[in-house]
Amino acid sequence: MANIVNLDRVSKGYAAGQLLSDVSLGLDDSDRIGVVGLNGAGKSTLLKLLTKAIEPDTGRVTHRRDLRVAALPQTLDLPPGATVRDVVIGTAWLPKGFGAEHEWAGDAGVRTVLGGLGMPDLGLDALVEPMSGGERRRVALAALLIRESDLLILDEPTNHLDISGINWLAAHLLRRRGALVVVTHDRWFLDAVATTTWEVGEGSVRAYEGGYAAWTLARAERARVEAATEARRQNLLRKEIAWLRRGPPARTSKPRFRIDAANALIADVPPVRDQVSLQRLATARLGKQVYELDDVSVSLGAKSLLDGVTWNIGPGDRIGLVGANGAGKSTLLRVLTGALPPDGGRVQRGQTVRPAFLSQELRELPLHLRVLEAVEEVARRVTLGDRELSAAQFAEVFGFSGARLWTPVGDLSGGEKRRLQLMRLLAAEPNVLLMDEPTNDLDIDTLAALEDLLDTWPGTVIVASHDRYLIERVCDTVVAMYGDGKVRDLPGGIDEYLATLGTPIPEPGGRATTPQRPAPAEAGDGLSAGELRAAKKELARLERLMSKLDQREVGLHEQLATHATDYEKVAALDAELRAVRDERSATEEAWLELAERVPEA
């Protein structure tokens, strides 16, 4: 490995505030970095600093000599009159230092890349200007993928890609040589391509080994440690306050520094960390019938989007709807909402159905109102779990508080508008949720909160999404649309969908295989049936032991707080705590080693 980029004590801020402060990090030639963080935390700014598109306020960014950097920004400026050939093979849009590709290296490779990105029939002589934003972005991405670069930087590359395209892109990037830095809110994609995760937030960049799963575990551990620290702080705080309240004689007879320390402790209580905390919304109970489609057909010109669809949807069904762009998913949802009457057939809805439709568009948002007014337009009071909240309190649950409540809706960022759109939808307290690409423009923390809500939603949920992580997390069944007007059940879920398309699934180490229907689990690592049973039994024992050690550690923390003034007792407890932690670490390592040899149940 060789170092190619360095950031040395870099800071960058704008009028709205400081984004990065005194950040130092390095990038090697084989690194695959996933960048995560809240909207507005500074992820795109970090990418621009890495490419030297902007200069830091303080500090220094250095590149290896002759470093070839290819970057896909969030916004594109493609020249008018350019064709696909001009952009992909020519030099109509390219990062500095890149030339045209030779024709002999072009057509086959370009068509393979365009096909993988979901545009197999796009001609090289097609004009780019009349294309949709998503198509233009995919053409620009293709221009970067067919060229070799030392560092490839991608800002939200999965936007406008369907599940098949996301899988293809992950497999392609794993086969590619060179360093990769990618900002993405797609958790599955992050896990597939990243070996290191950078978390941008609060002016800093924290590095974690592994992809989304490893980062999530690390955050959970960090939160656990902080919670234990805060519990000790609160116990000590209560003791100090009790001491201070013993009366004036006690205050004057004790050392002054203890009073000062208690006041400092009170002032140092940390703020609430998570601003977005969604809870289960109480909904009305559904009857036996929700939706019944009988021989429904919808056409757009000569194209049949729905062709004789017969489909029953019951109470509590949780359905993921997958398919390529243009396959008819949005049309099907609009038929269910009643916004689009079918050309033929019958759609019957249950009498108690109160649907809410989250569309891809933001047109229904009242841009002339302020955030609080936009919520109150739907409901002045909202029932959330077992609480009744005012519109202002409800908005705060979704991350809008203080001055942000009075921000005009038209001035919100894309992610904030999406959050407001979701908030207005839930404020109406529906019992059926119809959601068209609900994860667009949402950061990972908001996505996790949304999934927490959907995971326990007591009504019916139908989600059309290219976000594989969301579908597999909150949906019990998956149905697919292949563009032929039919709706097909997929008992094998998304793996079955990809298998029908022959899409490669990325594997660790840069390999890609064509997915197949899952086979029954077999004994791994050459274990016999008896050895496999023994290994699974040992895994269960180690899991129980880790749980006991966790409980023991919590108990020791509580004892440390209780005996904070007994130095001998604290020393003994601290030694025991270190021993428990060492034993847990050894137990966890043994579990991980054994788990690698035992196939999943």
Automatic annotation (TrEMBL):
InterPro entries: AAA+_ATPase, ABC_tran_C, ABC_transporter-like_ATP-bd, ABC_transporter-like_CS, ABCF_ATPase, P-loop_NTPase, Val-tRNA_synth_C_sf
GO molecular function, one term: DNA binding
Signal sequence bounds: none
Residue ranges of the region described as Disordered: 503-529
Pfam families: ABC_tran, ABC_tran_CTD
Coiled coil segments of this chain: 532-590
Keywords for this protein: ATP-binding, Coiled coil, Nucleotide-binding
Domain ABC transporter: 5-227, 291-509
Record has NAD as a keyword: no
Protein's name in the database: Putative ABC transporter, ATP-binding protein
Organism: Planosporangium mesophilum
Taxonomic lineage of the native organism: Bacteria, Bacillati, Actinomycetota, Actinomycetes, Micromonosporales
